[in-house]
Structures are given as C-alpha cells and as structure tokens.
Amino acid sequence: MVKLLNYSRYILLSGILLLTSGAAARYYGSSTAPFLFSSGGLCKITYILLAVKSGRYRPGREIIFLLTGLALLACGIASRNGVILQGYSLPLITSAVLLKMIFAAAFIVKVRRP
To answer: In terms of pTM, does the model score above 0.85?
Structure first.
C-alpha cells in the first residue's frame, strides 16, 4: 500500500495538469477540452478514493462543499444554453469554483494533519 501512496501524488499532479490543459484547450477553441476536463476530474476522484482507502482521509462535512459545487457547476453549464437563464451562468460557475476550492483547502488540511 505504501508504494500506491507514492503514485497517488502523480495521479493528483496529472489531474491538475489535465484540468489546466482543458482550460487552455477551451480558451483556444479545441474540441479536446471536454475530454481533458473529464480526465482531470477522474484523476482527482481517484486520488480522493485512494486517500480514503489508505486511511489518510476520512470524509466529513467538507464533502458538502464539493457536492454543492458540482451541482452548481452543472446548473451553470446547463444555463448557458437558455436565453433567459444565460445571465445566471457566470455567477453559478463562479460560486461552484469557489466551493470546490474551499473543499480542496479543507481536504489538504485534513490529509496533512498528523
């Protein structure tokens, strides 16, 4: 299991790299952006599951920030297509990113705690 934990950092770093690449691909209009975003998210989920399985992380109330952020993100993306709801898209996505950042900070604090 110790060897698996050493690789989990690479999984997290590759997830961050894929998410960053997805943002750049979206900025330049590439059709690979959804694939890169999905792959990066999958890497992050894998890292969290490995941390739970190894016992380094025990999920708590901070999961609410993640789930709420994901729900707001889905609503923000869906509202882009509606003419009436387009004005809500940016605030929803911004709120989602903020909630996901709060989760990430709480996750890091909890994992690094002895």
So the answer is: no
